[in-house]
Amino acid sequence: MVTPATQSMTMPGRQAWTGRANSFMRYIRRNPLLAVGLVIFLGLVLFSTVGSLFVDTVKAPYPLAAPASLAPSWDYPFGTDAQGRDMLAVMIVGTRLSLKIGLLAGALGLAIGIVLGLISAFYGGWIDSVIRWVVDVMFTIPSFLVMVVIASLLQQYISVENMAFILAAFAWPGPTRGIRAQVLSLRERAFIQMARLSGMRGPEIIIRELTPNLAPFLLAGFVGALIGAVYGALGLELLGLGSQREPTLGMTFYWMQRYSALLRNLWWWWGIPIAIIILLILSLYFISFALDEWANPRSRRSE
């Protein structure tokens, strides 16, 4: 039988999600930076999903689908590249694939960081020492160079999913360290001590008490991991280490360099992808800056 005292002990954990959601909605209404970032990001998501309903995304984004090197026109609004790809279809599919890589890599990296950070900080002792040592070692490794080596060795097997896994393998140390620091500041607070006294076990405390209170920080961490994954994927693909067939945004830049689009004055081949990349990065940075402020009460403006 659950007593009123026990119910009051676990009340912060049960009500935290609702309170955080209401706080987040209020924050969106009064923070234009977050609103602009969300509008741009959702616009790109709609462009990459709804756009496939109006454009052939099966053949048009691939070579020999159209006459080569055509400037933008009524038939080809974004023009075509030197390999005969319809650039509108390439941008629709490429934006979706690049977002898929970033979201998958960011989610996997953050998930690993959440598990390791929570375990390290909550249980402490030798577990904390081992995890901290592994994280410190990972920070000393030049991750991008290692990813280049791995992608080079596995180039013939590289797909969108494999690219995301490679990026995720080096995306977790930062979230692990950040989450560990947050949990260390929470685990000695009164509501955690009361939860322990009520008989709740470690995993239950982590899920019901700690995780809801970490929600703003986790959301901000996910956006940061997404930004890192987008940069990592672009870097590898610019070197030609992405999927040679898939028309991601990074591989579009690779083919643009290889076929000398700048020297040939094919401005639409490089100008449009650059514009989409700028919009994507700006939207993620706007969201990240706003979420960092929301996750850090000390930096919040008075409501």
Give a verbal description of the structure.
This protein has 11 helices and no strands. It is mainly α and 303 residues long. The protein starts with a helix and ends in an 8-residue tail after the last helix. Residues 1-10 have low confidence and may be disordered.
Summed up, what is this model?
This protein is mainly alpha-helical. 72% of the residues lie in helices and 0% in strands.
List keywords for this structure.
mainly alpha, 303 residues, single chain, 72% helix, disordered N terminus
Average of pLDDT: 84
Uncertain runs are 1-10
Helicity, in percent?
A: over 70%
Count of DSSP-assigned helices: 11
- SSE string, helices as H and strands as E: HHHHHHHHHHH
Strand content: under 5%
Number of strands: 0
Largest sheet: none
Q: Give the overall shape, derived from the CA principal axes.
A: elongated
Distance between the termini: 40 Å
Structural class: mainly alpha
Query: What's the gyration radius in Å?
Result: 23 Å
